[in-house]
Write a structure and sequence with these properties.
This protein is 85% helix and 0% strand. It is mainly alpha-helical.
């Protein structure tokens, strides 16, 4: 059989539960406060941007490394058989753009 509690024990239990409930309500109030919600949303957005920027950096770095590997030999000297055609295409594109700009004027 359960032990009978005294009125003082019951009152102490009520006080303790009220304090626990007050703490719980304070926590809920902080979590549901608009500033807290906005701060959490900002943090999630910043994390998403950081992840996306990191992935973009890795992809760009990989692309640059691939192009460099095509245009430069292992010892660091340019591969002229590949660099010269690329340079010629670049000069041709710039020339065409210059002609196009002159024709518009």
């Amino acid at each position: 059989m359960a032990e009978a509690r005294t009125p003082a024990q019951i009152e102490a239990d009520i006080v303790r539960r009220r304090q626990q409930l007050a703490v719980t309500l304070d926590e809920i109030g902080v979590r549901l406060h608009p500033k807290t919600i906005m701060d959490e949303a900002k943090a999630k957005a910043a994390d998403a941007v950081d992840r996306t920027a990191g992935r973009a950096y890795v992809a760009a770095n990989r692309a640059v490394s691939d192009v460099r590997a095509q245009l430069v030999s292992e010892n660091g000297t340019p591969r002229l058989e590949r660099v010269i055609p690329v340079a010629m295409v670049g000069v041709a594109v710039v020339g065409l753009l210059a002609l196009r700009t002159r024709r518009r004027r």
